[in-house]
Write a structure and sequence with these properties.
heterodimer; A: mainly beta; 7-stranded antiparallel β-sheet; 56 strands; about 50% strand; flat; B: mainly beta; 7-stranded mixed β-sheet; 6-stranded mixed β-sheet; 25 strands; globular
């Protein structure tokens, strides 16, 4: 490795959406600075994927304001250089490394011992720990297309996105000695299995399973366990129970023991002892408890004298086979041999153990002893409590990719075609496959000359329109199109969807001749697409330019017939408002033209505007409405009802009012007044009426004195909530406050009305007043009768 | 070789005395393919369109229909139908056979409920006219829309394919695929059978091996109008096809309008010892299939319609011998297969000393006895194709109730040819099935239909 470090140029090619290419081009070392980082990538269907990727950096401070990409920065390496040096800063939570498959270098594999004691490889070469900086060097350079990728736990880390291209060539546009091309481009195939990425993001992938809560093997001491007498079955014979640590005699090494009985010839009923440890769960968790035990009764116990091995969590016993003990042994009489379970392992799974502190107790119980020679021993070893983490995935055995990428992007309608030189030129296509399965790139309307595989040039290039691109492989091919055209390349294994959405996947387009591609309008919507006259609709268009040239997209909205207005007809999402009142229903065609200045595409959507049979907002006068007293509830007190047009005080602008009651101190029952207008239907129609009202009773009304908002069509009342009134308010007694509905809008479906003229009446009714200061006022505004 | 004569053995001579030199092979036996057929022996069936001057015109319609699988399944398929012929939806679509140099014009009509189109990998400058909309990869015709015509010049001979360029992940699976054969200038069906313009591609018989596969759940969802529920990423085929049929239907008479009207092509290669058989292999589905002929290697001569040559005009000088060829999806492979029984160390005809050599017989083994003591009948189990004699063209007495297929074939050697993805030789979990067929090596006196 050279000690003369050189600043390298960071060249940004706008070949793909954004591909960062790190170019070396020195006669010394090709030296690069990369960071391994986590980032989020959004798929065309909106799915966010947690990725690991490489970010380009410029120097050893690793402070460049760059972001990680998939694939990582393209490394461009001059094979006249003596070596490649990559400085890797690891900003991921796991150790990573970099290997370049196909380039020979000295590897320093990292081994570990698995749970069965086997030596296994975790990393093909030396790892860079989280937060650390590692250096990777290659001295034997040769021309070709290579994939650099993580060499650590590659089954996961490569799939997570730690991959990129390393292009090695002695001269620009000379991929191999004697092969000259005019242009070069990368086509990098990879895949995403969202489940694996989610598991890694959640920390539930593979080895994070079953973290230990408590583990004691008693090889040096009793650990966190402490002994107590009479821990089980309510016994109370501390003199006949004991426990101790034994440095030998365990299943392996030391163990804990519990000794019961013996001591003297006294007949004793019920002895127990146990070892306890406390453990804590930060959250409710499924746990597994396992330990080994060995229960032995000495000779001489009778058959009605038994001993048990017991385990309890927080005082609750857990046993096997439906019992509350792990094992029970009984005596076989005077002079018989000892009885033992031998070493056994017991495992119990406990679901949803509550968060907090818990006590595990393991020990023994003997129901009876009658002799000094009758004693019981329980040995305990290898106690473990593990937390069962929801492991979603432990390997790629169920690998199930849902997204299929070329150059880090699955196809979408927003995809941009790739500049691929001009007709008459030769363009090198460097194919890379970092996915976990073969792909079959096929180019339409062209043949490729297949030059090389994994950086080894074929002696005899072959003419093919498709090629087999196995996982982990690179292939180089040239095209020499004779015509300027857009040439499609796609995976003939038909991975052409983004999850279940099509089109998508591994499909891209080569733009030979720098042809302009017209914009694409991928969606056009109006919300809602049926509006009443007087309403508006929100238009929204999504358009993109497959080649981002020659200019930015411009929008031009029109309406046919020329009716209505846009708040701005040059933006993607204007608001449309019809301007001419109509009585029927009209359909307008809203047209959109999108242009990239060289090409214009058009689309259209229909808007249905429903006219109105009657519409008044009373901003200048009462319009067609006229006032009359006593038009509701058969009232007959015209002197206590009146109505006026008001120029201000409507919901907006002017409105109508109805005034009831007041006047004098007379007790009056039943007052009403209302405004009427006629509307005409040329044919039987379903009609809806809506209006705004504001009903107010003055203070002092009693609770049995109420006022109502009423609406009638041809004398029939329409109300809300099963009543025949729109709203009703009642008084709150002498000295109380005014009661008001405030402004409300009421809409009611009138159903099918016959053709002809109908009369709409809107007004108020007050059932009783007993004072001159009891008065009712109602305002009316914005009356619409519509289909 | 009297020492190997078997009780009940029928020599070629005695057989020919009984039946005449040309065996009578037509039979009601379902296995048999031998019936009156209009083309000469060992020529791939297909359609040649209408040629006027330099233009060769085809009229196709995309239609739906049903294909049958040997396990009794019946599945909705979309396919291309030949409007100038049966007008029946077929799987795969008609094999289009054209002459090099012709301008090919393919007009597509559409009776499907979706837009469809055609793409032609390996063809240059495909121009579309008519139709209703520009799809991502090809000009499309909408349902009952305006016909679209694709025009290209058949500039290079070879084996190619076509398929829908519209929502390929679904439509290729649904059956909108077919083969194209461009015959080289100088080709003559009787006097000059060549695949490319070089003698290295000369052959006596040609057979198509068009590989596809099927995931029935896709077809059921389409049939039930639940297309939106299809998730291409859960694709998992359980049927595998050669020329649109699963074994044993690959061997069934073709066409067979009664039993499988929408699958007109079978896949039953036949040859005489020493014949050169051109295998035209097409990956029309979405998986690669390693195709494996038993009994001898083949010589791979072309890929994607191009001879494996070191330089133009060099012939197939980069051809290689192999016994298993991966057929990638969308790609084509051509190979030449030959078999003479050379160096078996025994005489495949069971000749007596002094009898004349058969054509292409490997002379050093002439008259050599088969190096085993043939077991007696009671010690044998009888397979479907055993003729009663181990010798080519030989027949023998078979126990009552035994299949006479082998005798009807005149003691042909039946060599299994199959996908070496072994799961692909099943029909929806039932073995045998899928991509299996048999190469029938026939006695030289048996004419190949």
């Amino acid at each position: 490795m050279s000690h003369e470090l050189k600043n390298k140029t960071l060249v940004i090619f706008v070949v793909m959406l954004v591909t960062l290419a790190l170019s070396a081009g020195s006669s010394l070392a090709a030296e690069f600075y990369l960071r391994a980082e986590q980032f989020t990538k959004t798929m065309p269907d909106g799915k966010n994927i947690t990725m690991w990727g490489f970010a380009p950096d410029s120097d050893a401070s690793f402070a460049a304001p760059t972001t990680a990409t998939v694939p990582g920065p393209a490394l461009s390496i001059d094979t006249n250089d003596p070596n490649i040096v990559i400085h890797l800063k690891n900003n991921l939570p796991k150790p990573v490394s970099i290997v370049i498959t196909g380039l020979i270098t000295t590897m320093q594999p990292v081994f570990f011992q698995d749970s069965r004691g086997r030596r296994r490889v975790r990393s093909f070469t030396h790892e860079t720990q989280p937060g650390e900086i590692g250096v990777y060097t290659w001295n034997n350079l040769r021309d070709g297309s290579f994939i650099y990728q993580s060499g650590t736990h590659p089954a996961v880390q490569v799939q997570m996105g730690l991959y990129g291209t390393a292009k090695l060539e002695a001269d620009i546009n000379t991929p191999y000695a004697g092969v000259n091309v005019d242009n070069e481009m990368d086509l990098f195939f990879s895949e995403i299995d969202p489940a694996l990425h989610q598991a890694v993001a959640n920390g539930t992938y593979g080895s994070t399973a079953n973290p230990m809560v408590l583990s004691e093997n008693f090889d040096t001491d009793a650990g966190s366990f402490s002994y107590a007498d009479d821990t089980f079955q309510g016994t109370n014979q501390p003199g006949y129970a004991d426990g101790g640590y034994t440095p030998t005699g365990g299943f392996a090494g030391g163990a804990l023991n519990v000794l019961l009985g013996g001591i003297d010839a006294t007949n004793i009923l019920g002895m127990s002892g146990g070892w306890s440890a406390v453990f804590n769960l930060p959250a409710s968790t499924d746990i597994t408890i396992s330990f080994r035990y060995n229960l032995t009764q000495s000779p001489n116990y009778e058959s009605d004298e038994y001993s048990e091995a017991l385990v309890a969590i927080d005082g609750t016993l857990y046993g096997s086979g439906g019992a509350d003990y792990l094992a029970r042994v009984a005596g076989n009489g005077e002079g018989g041999p000892q009885v033992t379970t031998g070493w056994r392992q017991f495992t119990v799974n406990l679901d949803a153990v509550a968060a907090g502190t818990h006590t595990l107790t393991i020990g023994g119980h003997n129901n009876k002893k009658t002799s000094a020679a009758e004693n019981t021993e329980v040995l305990i070893d290898d106690v473990m409590i593990t937390k069962e983490t929801a492991v979603t995935m432990t390997s790629t055995i169920d690998y199930d990719p849902k997204y299929f990428l070329i150059n880090g992007q699955p196809y979408s309608s927003a995809a941009i075609s790739l500049p691929a030189g001009m007709s008459g030129e030769t363009t090198l296509l460097r194919f890379y496959n970092a996915s976990l399965q073969s792909h079959f790139p096929l180019i339409q309307n062209l043949y490729m000359t297949i030059l090389s595989e994994n950086g080894y040039k074929y002696t005899y290039p072959k003419q093919q329109y498709s090629l087999v691109l196995p996982a982990g492989t690179t292939k180089d091919a040239t095209i020499a199109p004779s015509q300027d055209a857009i040439y499609s390349i796609y995976d003939r294994a038909l991975n052409l969807t983004n999850a279940a959405n099509q089109p998508g996947g591994m499909m891209t387009f080569l733009n030979v001749g720098n042809l302009n591609l017209p914009p694409v309008i991928s969606s056009l919507s109006a919300t809602p697409d049926i509006i009443n006259y007087g309403g508006t609709t929100q238009l929204n268009a999504v358009a993109s330019d497959p080649d981002s040239q020659p200019g930015p997209l411009t929008y031009n909205w029109t309406v046919t017939p020329n009716e209505g207005t846009f708040n701005d007809n040059t933006i993607p999402n204007p608001v449309y408002t019809p301007t001419t009142a109509i009585t029927g229903s009209e359909t307008y065609s809203i047209g959109l033209e999108v242009s990239d200045t060289a090409a214009t595409v058009a689309s259209a959507i229909n808007i249905t505007v429903q006219g109105v049979f009657l519409q008044e907002s009373f901003d200048t006068d009462a319009a067609g409405f006229s006032y009359a007293d006593d038009n509701f509830r058969a009232t007959s007190h015209p002197a206590y009802a009146s109505g006026d047009y008001i120029a201000v005080g409507g919901f907006t602008g002017g409105g109508l009012n109805v005034n009831l009651a007041g006047i004098d101190g007379m007790h009056i029952l039943g007052m009403s007044g209302g405004w009427s207008a006629g509307f005409n239907l040329t044919s039987p129609s379903i009609a809806t009426v809506s209006f705004r009202y504001n009903l107010t009773q003055s203070p002092n009304y009693e609770s049995h004195e109420y006022s109502e908002v009423l609406i009638a069509v041809d004398g029939t009342l329409y109300g809300s909530g099963g009543t025949d009134y729109v709203a009703r308010i009642a008084g709150d007694g002498e000295g109380g406050t005014a009661v008001t509905t405030g402004w409300n809008q009421f809409t009611v479906d009138l159903g099918l009305l016959s053709a002809g003229t109908h009369t709409l009446t809107i007004g108020a009714h007050n059932n009783a007043k007993t004072s001159s200061v009891e008065s009712t006022e109602m305002f009316i505004d914005d009356v619409i009768v519509s289909p | 070789m009297s020492q190997t004569k078997r009780t009940g053995d029928v020599t070629m001579d005695s057989l020919s005395k009984k039946t005449g030199r040309n065996f009578i092979l037509a039979s009601a036996f379902a296995l048999m393919i031998f019936s009156s057929y209009s083309y000469a022996g060992g020529v791939i069936p297909g359609i040649s369109g209408t040629t006027v001057g330099s233009d060769t015109t085809f009229n196709l319609t995309a239609k739906s229909g049903y294909v049958a699988t040997p396990d009794g399944g019946s599945y909705l398929m979309w396919g291309y139908a030949d409007n100038d012929g049966t007008a029946t939806m077929q799987y795969p679509g008609p094999t289009l056979i054209v002459q090099q140099g012709k301008t090919v014009k393919i007009t597509l009509d559409n009776e499907l409920p979706v837009n469809v189109s055609m793409v032609f990998p390996g063809q240059h400058n495909v121009i579309a006219s008519g139709g209703n909309s520009d799809g991502l990869l090809a000009r499309e015709i909408s349902p009952a829309g305006t016909t679209v015509t694709y025009t290209f010049e058949a500039s290079n001979p070879g084996t190619y394919l076509y398929y829908s360029g519209t929502r390929m992940d679904l439509q290729v699976e649904m059956g909108l695929v077919g083969a194209i054969i461009i015959r080289p200038t100088g080709y003559h069906p009787d006097t000059n059978r060549i695949a490319y313009k070089h003698a290295d591609s000369a052959y006596d018989h040609e057979y198509l091996f068009l590989h596809t596969e099927m995931d029935p759940k896709v077809h059921l969802l389409v049939e039930q109008g639940r297309t939106s529920e299809i998730d291409n990423t859960t694709y998992s085929p359980v049927y595998w096809f050669l020329n649109g049929r699963n074994f044993p239907d690959t061997l069934l008479v073709a066409p067979n309008s009664e039993l499988i009207p929408n699958q007109p092509y079978n896949c039953l290669p036949m040859m005489h010892p020493g014949d050169r058989v051109l295998m035209r292999m097409v990956g029309a589905g979405r998986d690669a299939h390693p195709f494996h002929p038993h009994s001898n290697n083949f010589v791979s001569i072309a890929r994607d319609g191009r001879l494996l040559q070191s330089a133009p005009g060099a012939g197939a000088d980069l051809a290689f011998s192999d016994y298993n060829l991966n057929i990638p999806p969308g790609s084509t492979r051509d190979a030449i297969f030959e078999w003479t029984g050379k160096k078996l160390g025994w005489d495949i005809y069971g000749h007596d000393a002094g009898e004349p050599l058969q054509p292409n017989e490997y002379a050093p083994d002439h008259g050599k006895p088969i190096p085993v003591t043939l077991p007696e009948q009671k010690d044998l189990t009888f397979g479907l194709l055993y003729s009663g004699s181990p010798f080519l063209g030989g027949t023998g007495i078979l126990p009552p109730g035994t299949s006479v297929a082998g005798q009807v074939l005149g003691g042909a050697y039946a060599q299994i040819w199959h996908s070496h993805h072994e799961k692909e030789i099943c029909n929806n979990d039932i073995f045998p099935g899928g991509q299996i067929t048999f190469m029938l090596i026939m006695h030289p006196d048996v004419s190949i239909p």
